[in-house]
Design brief:
Blueprint: E1 9-13, E2 19-22, E3 26-30, E4 48-56, E5 60-67, E6 71-78, E7 81-85, E8 103-106, E9 110-115, E10 120-126, E11 132-139, E12 149-154, H1 157-160, E13 165-170, H2 179-184, E14 193-195, E15 199-206, E16 211-215, E17 230-235, E18 245-248, E19 255-257, E20 261-267, E21 272-277, E22 283-290
Parallel strand pairs: 13-14
Antiparallel strand pairs: 1-20, 2-3, 3-4, 4-11, 5-10, 6-9, 6-11, 7-8, 7-10, 9-12, 13-15, 15-22, 16-21, 17-20, 17-22, 18-19, 18-21
Length: 291
């Protein structure tokens, strides 16, 4: 049964208070401490460690770089971002590269996921003629030294306009997964990307004057292992030139503008978070629900 949020704590995280770095080719806003931005009050939230809202200029990007012991995912808002494994040379992709894990040009609606595990290297380049806008998100895994792995999926835009669409959910086999279960990579929620963390990511596009409700812990009881003390972060990306706004939990003091987010703490599986679109444009947002 759905429950109210009377026991929860909701704290806005305003866009202007985020870390910001403009390198010319990269314009990045940091919700949590990252690179040269450090704030002890904003280090992480549950399993969530990094939430960067990035814009990368045409024909630039992140050259080949390593990752280790982190779950990393990119949510494309506009433009095109090319993922290339370190073994694939630019210009040498050829017709033999059919695996999205090795090479994939991501566009709006795509999510690319990396388990850094014991070590992996890839590049993310904007090889188009326009800027690319995306969210780069890192989560802390439930174990170190995991087998490195990629996943890429496309999520339907029309579905996001009807309700929150689950994007990422925990690996169904959990922390004790066998090598076979790791290879199978079955997520707790079908048609999502599996993550090595007690975390669900969902996304929605809420029309003007419409309201969605997010159910903490997922729609089914089996999705998350930990039912109490969950941490939900809501983020409204800067996609509508400042014309999108949302209101959380029906409270007038919890109105978020583009670039804003909110920490929703002390919530339990089954709690419902109301999100209303009250701006002049539809509101695209992501919800990150973790232990």
């Amino acid at each position: 049964m759905a429950k109210s949020l009377s026991h929860s704590k909701i704290t806005p995280r305003r866009s202007q208070d985020r870390g910001h770095a403009d390198h010319g080719w990269l314009n990045s806003y940091h919700t949590f401490s990252f690179a040269d931005y450090w704030d002890p009050q904003h280090m992480s939230f549950g399993s969530l460690r990094v939430l960067n809202e990035d814009r990368v200029a045409a024909e630039t990007g992140f050259p080949t770089h390593p990752h280790r012991d982190a779950e990393i995912f990119s949510y494309i808002l506009s433009g095109e971002l090319t993922h290339r494994d370190s073994m694939i040379q630019k210009g040498k992709e050829g017709p033999m590269v059919k695996n999205k894990d090795d090479f994939y040009r991501m566009k709006r609606g795509d999510v690319q996921f990396t388990t850094g595990g014991r070590g992996i290297a890839h590049s993310e380049q904007n090889e188009s003629k326009e800027w690319v806008h995306f969210l780069q998100i890192w989560a802390l895994p439930w174990a170190k030294g995991l087998t490195p792995r990629y996943h890429t999926r496309t999520f339907d835009e029309a579905a996001k306009r009807k309700d929150f669409v689950p994007i990422i959910s925990p690996l169904r086999a959990g922390p004790g997964a066998t090598a076979e279960e790791e290879e199978k990579a079955e997520p707790a929620i079908p048609e999502t990307i599996p993550i090595h963390a007690d975390l669900i990511m969902s996304a929605g596009i809420i029309g003007v004057d419409k309201r969605f409700k997010y159910k903490v812990g997922g729609e089914d009881d089996h999705v998350v292992k930990s039912k109490s003390g969950r941490n939900v972060y809501v983020h409204l990306p800067m996609t509508k030139s400042g014309n999108a706004k949302i209101r959380l939990a029906g409270q007038e003091d919890l109105v978020l503008a583009e670039g804003d987010g909110a920490y929703v703490s002390e919530v339990n599986a089954g709690d419902m978070i109301s999100v209303e679109s009250i701006g002049e444009a539809e509101a695209e947002l992501v919800v990150l629900d973790s232990l």
